[in-house]
Specification:
Blueprint: E1 4-5, H1 15-20, H2 32-49, E2 54-59, H3 62-73, E3 79-84, H4 87-98, E4 102-107, H5 116-125, E5 131-135, E6 137-138, E7 143-144, H6 147-156, E8 160-164, H7 176-179, E9 183-187, E10 198-203, H8 205-212, H9 226-230, H10 245-261, H11 263-282, E11 287-288, E12 298-302, H12 309-320, E13 322-323, E14 335-339, H13 347-363, H14 371-383
Helix pairs in contact: 2-10, 3-4, 5-6, 11-14, 12-13, 13-14
Bound molecules: pyridoxal-5'-phosphate (PLP).
């Protein structure tokens, strides 16, 4: 039986991307061609994100990028606005307190997006705040925040915006320069569909300025972004440490594929997401969050009463070879998540998921509903 993962990251990696990792290993510290390769890769990512800002790819998955952004920007004692309407949104607070910063939460129900007006009010109430953190797609609940609108409010007020786009990049379109986000962070293992292990950061001049003007410079080495600014980005042809060359080869292949698909990439995500949700609603599942703020990369549904989350998902994997996600924090045990990002956002995979899901539900003594057939019909309709 072929196993298939439809978790909201890591996602399946396509064969050409896996094969790219088998290329010969050259010396990334010394080989001039590798410098060109790295620069080129960052150029392609700029294209994907619609930005002129500096782009870096660092060794370590999304969390490393999030922590790097915060610890480089935030000085001890400084207050940060943390937008909290999801698990990862709230999670930024740990990075802030970890480097001696203070947190002001802008908290909201995990079913609703944060609005431009709400962030404006919070920044007016706290004029001392110079950094705000937020999440584009908060994966544990499938929440999509309008980060373009939120970041523009930050820019108007001279506040640096930090956006976790790990679970949205290459699934939801990101127009970085237009949106005026100061630091956006992506990961290789989500919609980009490369192996886990890399994080992508796009950094504005305003963000660099904030880092460079700190009274107390950031003291760490591995996460230090200023080292990159004064080194690699200043043209020294030097990396602060050896680059993970095979992971980068894979990421390049994945980015090539995303760019080649163009607008079709986003259309595919929208069509799959909409057919998945309609199918689940018709089958009687309760979806979250509210309809107007659902990211196209993941669907979250409430676990039906009387079904044990872990047992159900374990059997789905063992007996039918399909893996979906549970959730985290306050949603643990209560929510299932179907990832349809990147390589996961393919109708044939979701057809197989629904077929297995249907059978597993029947095993758990639930009324049968022809979800696979309904999904296929809905998806075909959306193609016309
Ligand atoms: C996956 C993800 C990350 C990275 O988390 P890992 O669990 O380490 O992969 C960060 N933010 C969001 C919103 C994510 O979905």
């Amino acid at each position: 039986m072929d196993k298939m993962i439809l978790t909201p990251g890591p996602v399946e990696v396509a064969e050409p991307v896996r094969f790219a990792m088998a290329k010969p290993i050259l010396n990334p510290d010394l080989d001039l061609d590798f410098f060109d390769f790295y620069e080129n890769l960052c150029g392609k990512l700029k294209k994907l994100l619609h930005t002129q800002n500096d782009v870096l790819v660092l060794n370590g998955e999304g969390i490393l990028g999030l922590e790097a952004a915060v610890v480089n920007l935030v000085q001890p004692g400084e207050t940060v606005l943390v937008l909290d309407n999801g698990f990862f949104g709230r999670g930024f607070a740990d990075f802030v307190t970890g480097c001696g910063g203070k947190v002001v939460f802008l908290s909201k129900d995990y079913n609703e997006a944060i609005t431009a007006e709400e962030i404006r009010q919070a920044l007016i109430e706290h004029p001392e705040i110079k950094v705000a953190t937020m999440v584009h797609c908060d994966t544990p609940s499938g929440m999509l925040n309008p980060v373009g609108e939120l970041a523009r409010v930050c820019r108007e007020r001279g506040v640096i915006s930090v956006v976790d786009a790990v679970a949205s990049m290459a699934g939801e379109k990101i127009e970085l320069d237009d949106w005026q986000i100061d630091i956006v962070i992506g990961g290789s293992q989500k919609a980009l569909s490369a192996p886990p292990g890399l994080t992508i950061l796009a950094i504005s001049q305003q963000a660099w300025q904030k880092m460079l003007e700190r009274e107390i410079p950031y003291g760490g080495y591995y996460l230090n972004l200023v080292t990159w600014k004064n080194g690699w980005l200043a043209g020294t042809k030097e990396f602060p440490y050896t680059m993970p060359i095979s992971d980068l080869y894979a990421l390049e292949e994945a980015v090539n594929r995303a760019l080649a698909e163009g607008e079709g990439l986003y259309a595919r995500h929208r069509m799959v997401a909409s057919a998945v949700r309609e199918t689940l609603s018709r089958a009687g599942f309760q979806l979250m969050p509210r309809q107007d703020c659902r990211a196209v990369t993941v669907t979250a549904i409430m676990v039906p009463l009387g079904i044990d989350d872990e047992r159900f998902r374990r059997q789905l994997w063992k007996k039918y070879g399909v893996m979906i996600g549970g959730s985290w924090g306050s949603l643990a045990g209560k929510v299932w998540r179907i990832g349809h990002m990147g390589e996961g956002a393919r109708p044939e995979k979701l057809f197989r998921f629904f077929d297995a899901f249907e059978k597993n539900l029947r095993d758990f003594k639930r009324e049968p509903y022809p979800m696979a057939a309904v999904f296929a019909e809905l998806y075909q309709e959306s193609e016309i």
